[in-house]
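Exercise 7 asks you to align residues with tokens for two separate proteins.
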Amino acid sequence: MAPRIFPSLICTDPLHRLDAVRELEALGVDGLHVDILDGHFSPSMPLGLDTVRALRQHTGLPFDVHLMVTDNEFFIEEMIALGVERLCFHVESALHVDRLLQRVAAAGIVPGIALKPATPLSVLEYLLERIDFVLLMLINPGFAGHRTETRVPYAVRKVAACRRFLDSRGAGHVAIEVDGRVDFDSIPELVAAGADILVAGTRSLFHPAGTLGENLTRIGSQAATGWTARKRDD
């Protein structure tokens, strides 16, 4: 199965978000990646709940929600009320991880766990029966807009290690989602290493050198190259 592509909503023009969402929907993207930041766990707040609620009324695209917050319980309930399709939260900020995952799944939402770059994969050991995907941050949460913030040098290595970790524990069905500085050049190696879902932002889908349609085609081509290499190595 070819990797899925989720455009990052926070990378759209704040004054023209609905137009961008409609164009993305017309292009046939797999869903929208929706970052919810509280200004505490992460230092910025690019999307408010009211904006997310409003957009939800104007698109049928699945919402892939990534919570970067300290009060996970509050925001999970807000997302359940919105009827989002996918949701992950950070293990680093959750006190009762297992209970929260059960709550998400009970609401009919696909549950996942997000990890900051330096968080070891061992924290997933007792969560594999509860999750359908792992989101690996390739930059520090909330710093995507900082030009000096680069992808961590061990990004590809961690994706590959995560795929081995999952497969070795009989959890090969758990998808790996990668988020942060996913650019055109890195897509083949990230997919080859084990990435199943690409969060596409300013370094790829919203790159100013091309239109959304042109960039999406290029992402698909790069992902296909990585997928071919991955299947060859299996």
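Second protein for Exercise 7:
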Amino acid sequence: MLDCSGKACFLAVVFFDVVVMNSPCAMHAPVGSRPSKACIFRVIPGFSSDSSPGCIPIIAFATHDSYFVFQNCSCSAVEPHQRYERDNLMADQAPGFPQPLSRRKLLTSSMTHGGAFVAAAAIGPTLFSGRALAQSGDLRVGWVRATTGRLASSYAAIYAGGLVAIEEINAKGGIMGRKIVAVEEDDEGSPAKQPAIVRKLKSDNIDIIVGPAGASQVLSSLASSTPAKMIQCGLASPQTVGDATKYPYNYLLGLTNEQEGARAAAYMVEQLKIRKIGILYESTPFGESAQLASRETIKKLTGQDATAVQTYAMTASDLSAQLGNLQKAGCEGLIIWMANNVHVGMAFNGMERMNWLVPSIGHYTLFNDALFDIVPASAMKNVYAIFFKNWTYTDTQKVSDRHLSLAKKLQGYAYTKGTEPFVAAMPQYDFLYLLKQVVEQEKSFDVEAIKRGMDNVKNYDAIIGKISFSPTNHCGISMDDITLASVASAKDPRSFVATRLRAPGA
């Protein structure tokens, strides 16, 4: 609710272009809700009125899924903020109204009672639970992740950046005076759970979702959240989730599998000068898309395909055959697309046993300190992982104080220990700060206003790099902000929590 003490605020509703109600009292105009055949006007600071602040709501005006609570005051004309199409307005759509409110009754009531609606029916507490009131309370954000099930421990850490952002933003007054509240929904890591979660959040008047995590989970969620017009930041990296023509309300603040695949191959060819390149990848959507991008880039830069390509099922208990085939093919470098520590350990331990430690490049899950417990340090010497340039340092370039401050805060969450670079690459921190900027720029929490602002973001200075969106492209990061870093540099005393040494020439 707005605090109108010391200043006048104004809310007006026009019905068929006739002002029938206004109020100097504390209320946001519910521009984000599904409208009736009314025209909602913005709250206008400084508008004088003959009513005093603090008057008591005496009636609510109901639409399909919202309640607009008004105060008794006089009528006056104001400039419209947003006009809505005519729709069916029936007072009996809200509890407490025994009959429809016609245009005539509205006008008669406004003239008879000095601009006030008067209802004989009692107003129940449900009238104050709609979207209009939600516009002026806490900003509730759906926080979808696995808190139970086999993926729960893995997913706990990757949301830490978002928790830091919420704490920082709320400490400075929130977003336009509204504090962010994460509304947790446990999806158990299951794609099948997503539609019900989206429906529940929408029914609770929540229009912004952070999560879920995982490509299958996000795609399942988007199938429901897109028609519901909910702003979303799903944690998935297939390029398709950033296709704004398919998913116009989802925003990808991170690198895609395709970007990873292309950057890895380009570094192998252009910096390491290796032409005989092997690829080993897990049989998942991530592995498939990343290896295809690597092969396309290799062919573009060398005129030929990868020397050898091997894959494995996620149930694999040994990778000796795949590694043997890659070695026999004469591969002088490996691009490894795997996100499971068990298989990463199998691969590098196998290469160590074979005395075949060729330069290798992989996903940023390689920045997991647990690897040093299962793989000899000697096997990691020439291993590099995709990372964001802003999180890397060189002999002459330091990581910014802004990044070091965030790294220190991430360190405060015990469950991030050993995986901090991976956590630092997650999008929630940047998404919430970008949301704040867009809402304040648009001066609205309306979904379409947020979408309009997001679609026009250009070179936003995010933690991970410069973010830009357009109405057709919601993949925000550019290749210029994607680099490679040394996995072994985790042991470098210059590395602080999430920072790593940039790969030579990257």
